[in-house]
């Protein structure tokens, strides 16, 4: 998932002037990304979505909780809103001296190079190395049509049901997040003029209404309610660093009450209510870990091995799917193991291999485009250019 982890995120905690990198945010990304990897390993072993195959008995009781990878996407969206909003709050509600053009330029430089590299790699692995039909979750990515390729390059593949999961299943959420970025300057403008309540309430009402209208159409991959999840992340930044914390807490409580009221409506029962619950819990976790950095969750997420994985969680999210399928197809499936053992191998050894490969991908295709390194290059560049 798109991330801002290597864009150093800093804030003042409490009344001190210490500037602290929020390492726990990287750790949270790591946990979310690893859950997606485990979820896809589970769905690869038991392709419930594609073929209705699922475990039973104790196997289902012990592993069934992994069948909800989309919940991690919700959490990623909340974190994105949080990280992008922190510097805005510090700048008294402005995007910065460059305004919207600078913001979009930074987002494009940060998100697109790794995405296009992962797209090319996923396409080549799928065409050259992977079987066209494996009776697994990977079958959702076929066929590789020209329409799917073009829409993926334009980051519009989530707008059509026949291209939503093509090439690589996780790519759909990258398109959703990039589309959310287009609205960020507008949300900042609304916040500056009408306040945070208007942003949270407005995205909730509009997102809810549009989600209901698009749910059974070819545009269901747009998932407008995700804009509200993003706003919850923005709200978390306001709570931590804003000037009227108590007011924002009441706004959050009101949003929760509104959600519970609207969730009783019949058409909303078709939505996965757990998504919004995860978004609210994610918002609360970000607030708690910033205000009380010594709590167990914050300490675990800031633990160096966990935060290290979080530092390249975007690459892990982008590239894990074809690598996972390749490991399963060529290394694990030929062993003829039972499905339970197959999943155990994929969840342990397979995940470890994926993490290592993703880190290599990060070093080549993501790290050179992170803000910190790019800014150092820009400092040197003017002296080399002609006047």
Describe the fold and architecture.
The protein has one domain. Helix content is 68%, strand content 2%. The protein has helices spanning 23-45, 48-51, 57-63, 70-90, 99-129, 146-153, 171-181, 184-194, 196-214, 226-241, 245-262, 273-291, 296-302, 304-311, 313-332, 339-366, 371-384, and strands at residues 10-12, 19-21. Strands 1-2 form a two-stranded antiparallel ribbon. The longest helix has 31 residues, at 99-129. It is globular, with a radius of gyration of 21 Å. 42% of the residues are buried. The model is unreliable at 2-20, 266-270 and 376-387 (pLDDT under 50).
Set down the secondary structure blueprint.
Layout: E1 10-12, E2 19-21, H1 23-45, H2 48-51, H3 57-63, H4 70-90, H5 99-129, H6 146-153, H7 171-181, H8 184-194, H9 196-214, H10 226-241, H11 245-262, H12 273-291, H13 296-302, H14 304-311, H15 313-332, H16 339-366, H17 371-384
Antiparallel strand pairs: 1-2
Helix pairs in contact: 1-4, 1-13, 1-14, 1-15, 1-16, 4-10, 4-12, 5-7, 5-15, 5-16, 8-9, 9-10, 9-11, 10-11, 10-12, 15-16
In terms of structural class, how would the helical and strand content be classed? mainly alpha
Q: What's the number of helices?
A: 17
Intertermini distance: 40 Å
Helix content percent band: 55-70%
What is the number of E strands? 2
What strand line-up does the widest sheet have? 1-2
Main beta-sheet annotation: 2 strands, antiparallel
Low-confidence stretches: 2-20, 266-270, 376-387
Give the SSE string. EEHHHHHHHHHHHHHHHHH
**Rough outline:** globular
Radius of gyration: 21 Å
Count the domains: 1
Please, what is the average pLDDT? 84
- Which band does the percent of strand residues land in? under 5%
